[in-house]
Amino acid sequence: MTVNIPKLKYTESNNFFLMAGPCVIEGEEMAFQIAEHIVALSNKYNIPYIFKGSYRKANRSKIDSFTGIGDLKALKILKKIGETFDIPVVTDIHGPEEAELAAEYVDILQIPAFLCRQTDLLVAAAKTGKVINIKKGQFLSPAAMSFAAQKVRNCGNNNIILTDRGTSFGYQDLIVDFRSIPTMQKIGCPAVLDCTHSLQQPNQLSGVSGGDPEMIETIAKAGVATGADGLFIETHFDPAHAKSDGANMLRLDQLDGLLQKLVRIRKAILE
């Protein structure tokens, strides 16, 4: 299950790797503030770290919801973060035409959960040669992710990560089936647990998704205990005023204490 991720540090630490950052790039200052904080924590705990930030949010409930500061402007910020801190960067794409452009600025292309079966999108992403992180659709079984992974492999790209972000449980909730971790690992890919989107509460009448951030620690602990290769956590220094997904993001000042606990759990299960 080896994936070649450029610039990834602490790969010999036996820790889980961490994809973390804001939901969307709101500006250079906020992105650098968050990146600098998490880089310091990754150095403190020897955690392989990948900065996460969407350059554009295409999947929003309402037409007037914030989508981004401009594609090129946000992509340039992502690239600058990667170069400044010498870390890999991941962002999501939403259509085949975005793949080549985004690949010029980041190290990992992410396929959103709702789009994980879109063949044209998977093929375009795979052909860039970048690492591909495919999020499991809320409507798919973990085992069914083998077909998404195979589409990428058929293009000659074996650098694939699979991420579980919860499964639809009724209309306005998600549930995490932790059997997904070993199931997706059997596909031959590192398995990641998205600890924030899995707590999302979609389809709210307000048109803004809700969340349950108090449960992030519980989900993360269980993910590490289950043997997840990596964790995905969206975080912001002021989630209440974040421009996207504030309801389910972890407050940045809570990340240190959480990582300390998670590293201890990881060490315990490896002993």
Question: What would you say this structure looks like, in words?
Answer:
The structure is a single chain. This protein has 271 residues and is α/β, with parallel strands linked by helices. It has one domain: Aldolase class I (TIM Barrel, Alpha-Beta Barrel), CATH 3.20.20.70. It has eight helices and eleven strands. The chain has helices at 28-45, 71-85, 99-103, 119-127, 145-153, 180-185, 216-226, 255-270; strands spanning 17-21, 49-52, 89-92, 108-111, 131-136, 160-164, 167-168, 174-175, 191-194, 230-236, 250-251. The strands form two sheets. It has an eight-stranded parallel β-barrel with strand order 1-2-3-4-5-6-9-10, surrounded by five helices. β3 (89-92), α3 (99-103) and β4 (108-111) form a beta-alpha-beta unit. α1 (28-45) runs parallel beside α2, α4 (119-127) packs across α5 and α7 runs parallel beside α8 (255-270). The model has no long low-confidence stretch (mean pLDDT 92).
In short:
With 271 residues, the chain is an alpha/beta fold.
How is the secondary structure organized here?
Blueprint: E1 17-21, H1 28-45, E2 49-52, H2 71-85, E3 89-92, H3 99-103, E4 108-111, H4 119-127, E5 131-136, H5 145-153, E6 160-164, E7 167-168, E8 174-175, H6 180-185, E9 191-194, H7 216-226, E10 230-236, E11 250-251, H8 255-270
Parallel strand pairs: 1-2, 1-10, 2-3, 3-4, 4-5, 5-6, 6-9, 9-10, 10-11
Antiparallel strand pairs: 7-8
Give the key terms.
single chain, 271 residues, alpha/beta, TIM Barrel, 8-stranded parallel barrel, two-stranded antiparallel sheet, 11 strands, 17% strand
